[in-house]
Amino acid sequence: GGPALSPTPPAPLPSRALSQGFSSTFTGERRPKSDGVFEALGATDELSSAIGLAREFCSEKGHAFVEQLHRVQCMLQDAGSNIATPLSSARQAHLKRTSFSEKPVLELEQWIDKYSEELPPLRAFILPSGGRSSAALHVSRAVCRRAERCVVPLVQAGEADPNVAKYLNRLSDYLFVLARYAAMKEGQEEKIYIKSEP
């Protein structure tokens, strides 16, 4: 007989099946979905969503700082671009588009100082409270702390810009101060921690 025919190659898997368990970074690198880059991206996205909800509550109350929260959400988008561009696989063109400067960090510090000056000093541990605006800002603060915990290992590994971690660190302080400021402006009572009797 004639030469043996080569076996028919298997049909290519659907693209959806290929993507299960893996995602691509901005640099085109394929990594498991459990990779720290995607953990950090998910946390910053959740943070922006929490701030978006808080911003809606604050807008309903006519707070002047809602434009600051909008700016913060835009900065978190930029932070996400930096996180999605691991420095180990980034080319110069990537770095130019996704760098994250210290300027937004300094801006946050100015806002923190501005609102802190108007607040009464803390004399007890404040529980998340003080009306819907304040409580939603406290939720945002807690999510921000988690986002920072996700980003720090990437910075330590040299994969993300240290300014992203600095920004999240200062952002949680800003959100805490802003939560207190919103409660004060709305005339809402902040609940304080009271130790239970043994």
UniProtKB/TrEMBL annotation:
Record's keyword annotation contains Transferase: yes
Coiled coil: none
Biased composition (Pro residues): 1-13
Pfam families: Cob_adeno_trans
Subunit structure: Homotrimer.
Function of the molecule: Converts cob(I)alamin to adenosylcobalamin (adenosylcob(III)alamin), a coenzyme for methylmalonyl-CoA mutase, therefore participates in the final step of the vitamin B12 conversion. Generates adenosylcobalamin (AdoCbl) and directly delivers the cofactor to MUT in a transfer that is stimulated by ATP-binding to MMAB and gated by MMAA.
Protein name per Swiss-Prot or TrEMBL: Corrinoid adenosyltransferase MMAB
The species this protein was found in: Crypturellus undulatus
Taxonomic lineage of the native organism: Eukaryota, Metazoa, Chordata, Craniata, Vertebrata
